[in-house]
Each structure stands twice: as C-alpha cells, then as structure tokens.
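Sat 14:20. Reprocessing the chain from the morning session after the first attempt stalled halfway. Input below, unchanged.
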Amino acid sequence: MREIFVSGGAGFIGSCLAEKLLEDKNNHLIIVDDLSTGDKSKLPQKHKERYRFIKADVNNYKDVAEIFRSFHFDYIFHYAATVGVKRTQENPVKVLNDIHGIEHLLHISKNSGVKRFFFSSSSEVYGEPVELPQNEETTPLNSKVPYAIVKNVGEAFLKSYKKEYDLDYTVFRFFNTYGPKQSKDFVMSKFINLALQNKDIPIYGDGLQTRTFCFINDNVDACYEIFKKSLEDSKMTNDVINVGTDYEISIIDLAKKIIKLTNSKSEIVFLPPLEEGDMKRRLPDVSKMKAYLNRKMISIDDGIKEILNDTSFIL
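Finished this time. Tokens:
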C-alpha cells in the first residue's frame, strides 16, 4: 500500500486530486487541511476506508512533525496555500507565511524515505508575459507579488533539496483551473453564480485582459498521469510542467459566454482596475502536459456546461 500525504486536501483542486488518487486501491491517503479556506464537504465521498483526514496547519512545524511521526509517506502532494487574488492582496504576510509550510515538509521529507515531492506552483510566477506562449524553460519568472514570490521560493527549495539531498520532485504550474467544487470567489465560479441569479457581473478594468481556463478533470488527470509515470521510474523527472490550456479568452468575452450559456439577464459592470496582480495576458505552453494527458482537452463551453449540470454547484 502506498502512503500519500495530500496537503490542502479539503480545497478545490486538492480534494479532486485525492478523489483521483483513491481510484487506485493501492493508495492510502492522509489528507491534511487547516480548513481556513477548505471545507470538509469537499473531501472524497468514496473509498473512505482508504483515507484519513487530519485538521492541521503545515505552516506549524509541530503539526507536521506529529503527522510524520505517525505515518511513513512514499509521496507528498503539497497543495495547501493561501489563494485568490483578493485574499492574497489583503493578507500578504499570511501569504508569505506559506514559505514555512514548504520548508517544513521538505525538511522532514528528505530524511523519511519520501520518493517524490509534488508541488502546486502557479502561473503567477511568470508575471507580465515577455514571451507567448509562456514556456517552463525559457520564460523569465518576474512577478513581485507575495503569492508569486512564495511559489518561486518553493520551486527554488525543491531544486536545492534535489541537488543537496537527492529528493526527487515535480512542480505543477497551475493556470486558472475551474470546476463544480471551486469556491465562489474565483472568476469562473463567481461569474456563473452571478449569472444564474441574474445579478450584475463585475469586471475590473476594461475586461480585455486574457486568461486560459483549465477544467478540473484535465488538471487532475494530467497530474495523475505524471504521478503514475513516477511509479514506473522514480528518476523519471525533476521537472516543471505548466498545467492549463492553450485556449485564450478575454474576461469580457468570458462574461458574455457565461451569460449566453446560462440564458441570464445579467449585465456587465466595470470597476476600477486592480492595483496589482491582474496581468494583461496569460497563455501557457502546455506541450508537456498534453504529452502526459494524451487526450483532447475539455473545451471551455463543455466545462461550463459540466458545472451547470453538476448538482454540487450550489448557489
């Protein structure tokens, strides 16, 4: 039985990853979350006999140490983080505190037989694009906002621990991911929620800033395939992989699309631009991800329809 540690496992992406991991009967999970933004309702509803949930804060070394004294882990998925543009802007010190969680987990993992450390980084590390598409190897990491700095530091820690302690790693740079279990304070879920209530949809700035939106199944399936490959060859990769899509859409066009697909009477209203963190464009090079996923990605229209058909997406 493989013992797998999943931090942030009561959050959106972390809980969906846990569900996928539990499809393999050889996996046993310890799911850790401090529930500051996560919710127990998002925890897997199936295979409960093969996971245990522990409420703990990975930024607290004592919490982490106690868990590692009780369990021996083969793999670490570190997905816990303070997320959301508004939340991270309003709580910059809390964001920077997440560096401690990365350091704690790596410090203990290097001496406890962990075979690979999977880390959720972010498209935010790229900042304003200097080349498109944004490639893992050639695009500079130039963002100065605290959230991006934490992710960049996390990536640097992983590379350093590999060099000094031979701890294998994989970095997932997530671009906007959406799905039924996403909190309602992220752009896709927020717009859909407002449209279903025929309420005004607010857009910061002129709405011409572009993003790519990755449906949760594509995110989780790609990451899971990478994990499966690591089982076949523990030395397969110490790599960084963009996880997203290459379909670019402006925020105003996204709002219009959602209004159309929901038959909403919502109006688009414009607010002053955000002070920082609202990059003009994001467009990842996802050639690595596509090689692992090995199937066609879910279109944005189909992804929105999946949300609208899912009873777990509650107003």
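The longest strand covers residues 27-33.
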